[in-house]
Amino acid sequence: MTNDGGRISVQGTGHVALRPDLARLRLSCLGEHARAAAAFDACSSETAAVIAALAEASISSSDLSTSGIVLSRRHDSDRYFALNSLVVTVRPPERAGEVLAVAVDAGGDALTIDNVAFDVADDAEARSQARQEAVEDARRTAEELAAAAGVRLGRLISLEEGGGQRVTGQPRPARRISARAAAAPVEVGEQQVIVSVNASYEIAEDA
Fold first, then answer.
1. Which of 62, 130, 145, 171 has its Cα between 20 and 30 A from that of 23?
2. Are 96 and 135 part of one and the same domain?
């Protein structure tokens, strides 16, 4: 914050808390065999079983996508492994534990849970509110600086938005899970939409 050449320049920040309305699960199915084709077939079979189970659990095809397919030879042996990775969007996010259990039961020891993350489908309204709070925060700070300096704050002469951001919790680490898992306890928590602005005000001539 500076007072430079008859100006007072400040930064303001706005914070708005949001409760996520969806969860994104990143899952992978693994197949391993001495022959590449057999490893690929095993992986494909397990992946198909998981997809079918998710469909039965009311996960629509639009909320299920393939994020990667890998077939590779292990460096430490003559065996091949195949990996098929899926992204599953779950609404509402509180169903994430139930859906994970369904996937684990279908995929068994071939399934890996790579990540569980929560998100908001549309944060436009919250971001707009955070902008307003950021501008008000900047004005409030500028008025405090002017008062402390014994001058009167003049008109706003520049205003620009800084980098907005969404602060979320840490993603869950990847882990292998055995079949017949119970629904995992899930805590959705909150996210913070944070917007910052940079503002400059004139010092009033009659100050």
1. 130
2. no
pLDDT digit string, tens, across residues 12-43: 999 999 999 999 999 999 999 999 999 999 99
- Tell me the backbone φ, ψ of residue 58, rounded to 5 degrees: 70, 30
pTM: 0.76
> CB neighbours of 82 closer than 8 A, spacing ≥ 6?
30, 31, 32, 36, 39, 40, 42, 43, 44, 69, 70, 71, 72
Phi, psi of 88 (to 5 degrees): -115, 125
Contact 29, 202 (CB under 8 A): no
The residue out of 119, 143, 164 marking a domain boundary is: 119
* Separation between Cα atoms, residue 120 and residue 23, nearest integer Å: 9
Q: Where are the beta strands (DSSP E) in 120-203?
A: 153-161, 165-167, 175-176, 191-203
pLDDT in tens, 50-67: 999 999 999 999 999 999
The domain boundary residue, chosen from 119, 140, 161: 119
